[in-house]
């Protein structure tokens, strides 16, 4: 696997290219994830049922750029920001047109958005904002964030296939916010099913900080399969 880098509207994007991709995988990636990105992309490209183009773009301020609204964090006094809207706008108005133009992609190629932790919540939130994404992989998403349960109960996503996952020990903590994550993710799955969304909730062994790359790869692989079967 070889990586290419392309600058798009001020962001250095990393791309694992395929000869004839039939779908495009998009992942917002923090600095803490860069070391394992090759492992993740390798698993995806090796096990995918069809050729996929993997695109990672950098997130400079994780807590500000991926949160849909201001909310308290699980740790520390600084709150989450509300930059998810601007990040999604950059994807739709800058990233996707540039990929189509520079890589000569078909106009109707399906896009799959995914991420881990707060990037998983961002991906899940994006599924409610636009029908551009054929599938979304929300891996260990931060559904414990204040206001998310109420938001998910009020609105329906516009993405037809949504993957959810969580570690079996993620809720086993003294932190009152994080303790709710198991209940929140099972509620999320039920809401999606009631809304007619093709979804799955996969339980991974361990806590939030184990095998993040492998877990995210599994999410993308499920999405690829669902999109390919459509």
Give a structural overview.
InterPro entries: AB_hydrolase_fold (IPR029058), Esterase-like (IPR000801). The chain has helices spanning 37-47, 62-65, 84-103, 118-127, 148-154, 181-194, 212-229; strands at residues 3-8, 11-16, 23-30, 52-59, 111-116, 133-139, 161-167, 198-204. Strand 7, helix 6 and strand 8 form a beta-alpha-beta unit. The chain is 37% helix and 24% strand. It has a single domain (3-229), classed as 3-Layer(aba) Sandwich (Rossmann fold), CATH 3.40.50.1820. The longest helix has 20 residues, at 84-103. It is an alpha/beta fold and 230 residues long.
Topology record:
Blueprint: E1 3-8, E2 11-16, E3 23-30, H1 37-47, E4 52-59, H2 62-65, H3 84-103, E5 111-116, H4 118-127, E6 133-139, H5 148-154, E7 161-167, H6 181-194, E8 198-204, H7 212-229
Parallel strand pairs: 3-4, 3-5, 5-6, 6-7, 7-8
Antiparallel strand pairs: 1-2, 2-4
Helix pairs in contact: 1-7
Protein name: Esterase
Organism: Ruminococcus callidus ATCC 27760
InterPro entries: AB_hydrolase_fold, Esterase-like
- Overall geometry: globular
- What is the rounded Rg? 16 Å
The total of helices stands at 7
Q: Spans with pLDDT under 50 lasting ≥5 residues?
A: none
CATH architecture: 3-Layer(aba) Sandwich
CATH superfamily annotation: Alpha/Beta hydrolase fold, catalytic domain
CATH topology: Rossmann fold
Oligomer: single chain
* Name of the top-level CATH class: Alpha Beta
Number of domains: 1
Output mean pLDDT. 95
Structural class: alpha/beta
Estimate what percentage of residues fall within beta strands: 15-25%
Largest sheet: spatial strand order: 1-2-4-3-5-6-7-8
For the largest beta-sheet, the strand count, sense and barrel status come to: 8 strands, mixed
Helix content: 25-40%
InterPro entries: AB_hydrolase_fold, Esterase-like
Protein name: Esterase
